[in-house]
UniProtKB/TrEMBL annotation:
Protein name: Alkyl hydroperoxide reductase AhpD
Transmembrane spans: none
Reactions the enzyme catalyzes: N(6)-[(R)-dihydrolipoyl]-L-lysyl-[lipoyl-carrier protein] + a hydroperoxide = N(6)-[(R)-lipoyl]-L-lysyl-[lipoyl-carrier protein] + an alcohol + H2O
UniProt-annotated catalytic positions: 131 (proton donor), 134 (cysteine sulfenic acid (-soh) intermediate)
Keywords from the named record: Antioxidant, Disulfide bond, Oxidoreductase, Peroxidase, Redox-active center
Species name: Asticcacaulis benevestitus DSM 16100 = ATCC BAA-896
Coiled-coil ranges from the UniProt annotation: none
Keyword Oxidoreductase: yes
EC number of this enzyme: 1.11.1.28
A biological-process GO annotation: cell redox homeostasis
Domain Carboxymuconolactone decarboxylase-like span(s) in chain numbering: 101-176
Length: 177
């Protein structure tokens, strides 16, 4: 399994998605670890088996085992945080924002990879999960570490493309059932 296998699963009407995937894989704005970690974290956040399997196989060639684990941790922790903080943001009763969350988030402080890389992955997963509060928080940290707007945009483009490919394959799978 590989990126080529993943592209072969995309139907003709998703040609733009396949082209975007190719372009993003050739992207040089992000380091290989940043790029592949973003792909992997987003794939895990969405959870479509064919996307996860193919991206994980390809990413394993570019990432250390520690980076693979950290990308998965970004998907896991942000899956929790995005729901919690998005809910607080959307609720009219702002008293909940003053309460301690009581949720463990150790992966954020000790991710096992460069903090900037993990923050980039957390931002991309937050985009997939539509948590504006978390996107703003992680973008602020990234910009404070000198990450450019076009680098942030590159991560968002990866998130959008992985999300769209996952949606297409999920829909096509439903037609096969």
């Amino acid at each position: 399994m590989s990126v080529e296998t993943l592209q072969s699963l995309i139907p003709a009407y998703g040609r733009d998605l396949s082209l975007n995937l190719s372009n993003l894989l050739a992207e040089t704005l992000l380091s290989d670890q940043q790029k592949w970690g973003t792909f992997l974290a987003c794939a895990h956040a969405i959870g479509v088996p064919a996307v996860v399997q193919n991206i994980e196989t390809a990413a394993a060639q570019a990432l250390t085992p520690e980076a693979v684990t950290a990308a998965k941790a970004a998907a896991a922790i942000m899956g929790m945080n995005n729901v919690y903080f998005r809910a607080l943001h959307l609720m009219h009763n702002k008293n909940y924002e003053t309460l301690r969350s009581g949720l463990r988030m150790n992966a954020l402080t000790n991710p096992g990879v460069d903090k900037v890389d993990f923050e980039l992955w957390a931002l991309a997963v937050s985009a997939v999960n539509a948590c504006g509060l978390c996107m703003d928080s992680h973008e602020k940290v990234l910009r404070g570490h000198g990450v450019s707007a076009v680098q942030v945009q590159a991560a968002l483009r990866i998130a959008a493309t992985v999300n769209a490919i996952s949606a297409v394959l999920r829909a096509e799978s439903a037609l096969q059932a």
